[in-house]
Amino acid sequence: QVQLVESGGGLVQAGGSLRLSCAASGSIFSIEVMAWYRQAPGKQREWVATITRGDSTNYADSVKGRFTISRDNDKNTVYLQMNSLKPEDTAVYYCNLVGARTPVGPVSTYWGQGTQVTVSS
């Protein structure tokens, strides 16, 4: 069983910073992509940032220049450094992993339980 556990969420004032962590555990043969998504109350879940096996990164326009995604391959952990936070960033942040449990696949998608980030004005 593959499990993802997020941590690091909390309450912060506008302009502040938070660092989210997501640790993956269980039987994982390979990780293709790790990503962060977020969902605000009454809104659809949206993609925030992605990092590939080769450490290529991509960001949503709304967070570009403020957020940084990184990972520790040895620990199967992905991070999201969030700077210059805005009230619009308030949401539950979810960790996502795309990978395979065996050498022959299949490739599957896994989700964490989410961690709350609240940014006050």
**Alpha carbon gyration radius:** 14 Å
Helix content: under 10%
Indicate the structural class.
Answer: mainly beta
Largest sheet: 7 strands, mixed
Q: Tally the helices: what do you get?
A: 0
| Mean pLDDT across all amino acids | 95
What's this entry about, in short?
With 121 residues, the protein is mostly beta strands. The protein has no helices and 11 strands.
Could you characterize the architecture of this molecule?
It contains no helices and eleven strands. The chain has 121 residues and is mostly beta strands. The strands form two sheets. Strands 2, 4, 5, 6, 9, 10 and 11 form a seven-stranded mixed β-sheet that branches. It has a four-stranded antiparallel β-sheet with strand order 1-3-8-7, with no helix packed on it. Strand 9 (91-100) and strand 10 form a beta hairpin. The protein is elongated.
Topology (SSEs and partners):
Layout: E1 3-7, E2 10-13, E3 18-25, E4 30-39, E5 46-52, E6 57-59, E7 67-72, E8 77-82, E9 91-100, E10 107-111, E11 115-120
Parallel strand pairs: 2-11
Antiparallel strand pairs: 1-3, 3-8, 4-5, 4-9, 5-6, 7-8, 9-10, 9-11
